[in-house]
């Protein structure tokens, strides 16, 4: 499965949430609402989730293995950097 499009939908300079992203796979399947978050150890992606209990969240869609997550992060962060350069 190939990532065929990454769209940075919202850029936020303030706060911990830096952007909201949509990723298209094989020009056939899209995942919306992936968030780029600034944590204590740098940027990371948070997959779309829903609240299941008071305070608990469960991912709706997510990579199955570390290799896929790393590839997804690399591509998303590359597009995020491009969007930041364009905005400034």
Automatic annotation (TrEMBL):
Show the InterPro entries listed in the entry. Answer: SpoVG (IPR007170), SpoVG_sf (IPR036751)
SUPFAM superfamilies, sorted = SpoVG-like (SSF160537)
Q: Is the keyword Cell cycle in the record?
A: yes
Q: Which UniProt keywords apply?
A: Cell cycle, Cell division, Septation
Q: Which Pfam families match?
A: SpoVG (PF04026)
Keyword Cell cycle assigned to the entry: answer is yes
Gene Ontology biological process terms in this record: division septum assembly; sporulation resulting in formation of a cellular spore
Report the family membership. Answer: Belongs to the SpoVG family.
- Explain the purpose of this protein: Could be involved in septation.
Query: Could you identify this protein by its name?
Result: Putative septation protein SpoVG
């Amino acid at each position: 499965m190939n990532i065929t499009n990454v769209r940075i939908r919202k850029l936020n300079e303030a706060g911990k949430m830096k952007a909201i992203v949509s990723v298209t796979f094989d020009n056939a399947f899209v995942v919306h609402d992936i968030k780029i978050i600034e944590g204590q150890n740098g940027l990371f992606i948070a997959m779309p989730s829903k609240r299941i209990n008071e305070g608990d969240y469960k991912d709706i869609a997510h990579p199955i293995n570390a290799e896929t997550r790393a590839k997804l992060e690399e591509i998303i962060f590359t597009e995020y950097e491009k969007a930041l350069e364009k905005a400034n």
